[in-house]
């Protein structure tokens, strides 16, 4: 594996594709919302959204004012994922296309590894790397998970495409320096062709790393 300081490759496409899980590859954000409301003992409102969607379970427990709720939140979410998981439209096609094209992939999730392990069999894809909440000191919206994914894959973030759905995830990938494509259950995943075409506007990657101007607006 190359070091993070290696000279970036000159391949036409990205060195790697880094994919969020919840709300991007699988439609679990509604399940998470239900789990949080059940543990909190109250309905959630729009004001809760930025503190719940795309955030780590520890962050949500702190938002609810009780850091000790983390195990209960994890269990409530895991129960719902185990019985009612839906793969987002286009996920299977994109993942199989990436495998056929031999483009390295990483799953970069804010969920703990116990939740990720429930989802992986449903995706049917051999990711080159899985980054879960436990793998970095700070989770999304901090850039740490995406920086770590690029480092472990032996490349730099500006040579990576990140596929995200939540504001926290988009902020994390953008801050790391990835080209960010926005996806979600409503409109499905981008095709491999679209992903490649989006990257060509940054022939050598994204100098400066800010992918905001290169988002797919769904």
UniProtKB/TrEMBL annotation:
Keyword match Ribonucleoprotein: no
Keyword Disulfide bond: no
Keywords from the UniProt entry: Carbohydrate metabolism, Magnesium, Metal-binding
Taxonomy, superkingdom: Bacteria
Matching Gene3D superfamilies: HAD superfamily/HAD-like, Putative phosphatase, domain 2
Needed co-factor(s): Mg(2+)
Family to which the UniProt record says this protein belongs: Belongs to the HAD-like hydrolase superfamily. CbbY/CbbZ/Gph/YieH family.
Record protein name field: HAD family phosphatase
Taxonomic lineage: Bacteria, Bacillati, Actinomycetota, Actinomycetes, Streptosporangiales
């Amino acid at each position: 594996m190359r070091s993070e300081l290696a000279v970036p490759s000159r391949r036409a496409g990205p060195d790697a594709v880094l994919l969020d899980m919840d709300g991007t590859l699988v439609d679990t954000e509604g399940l998470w919302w239900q789990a949080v409301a059940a543990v909190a003992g109250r309905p959630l409102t729009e004001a809760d959204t930025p503190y719940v969607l795309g955030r780590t379970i520890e962050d949500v427990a702190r938002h609810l004012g009780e850091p000790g709720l983390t195990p209960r939140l994890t269990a409530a979410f895991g129960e719902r994922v185990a019985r009612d998981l839906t793969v987002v439209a286009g996920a299977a096609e994109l993942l199989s296309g990436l495998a056929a094209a031999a483009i390295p992939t990483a799953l970069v999730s804010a969920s703990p590894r116990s939740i990720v392990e429930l989802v992986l069999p449903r995706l049917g894809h051999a990711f080159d790397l899985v980054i879960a909440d436990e793998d970095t000191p700070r989770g999304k919206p901090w850039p740490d998970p995406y920086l770590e994914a690029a480092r472990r894959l032996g490349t730099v973030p500006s040579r990576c495409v990140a596929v995200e759905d939540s504001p926290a995830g988009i902020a994390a990938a953008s801050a790391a320096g990835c080209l960010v494509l926005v996806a979600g259950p409503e409109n499905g995943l981008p095709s491999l062709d679209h992903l490649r075409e989006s990257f060509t506007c940054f022939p050598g990657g994204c100098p400066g790393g800010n992918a905001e101007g290169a988002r797919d607006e769904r």
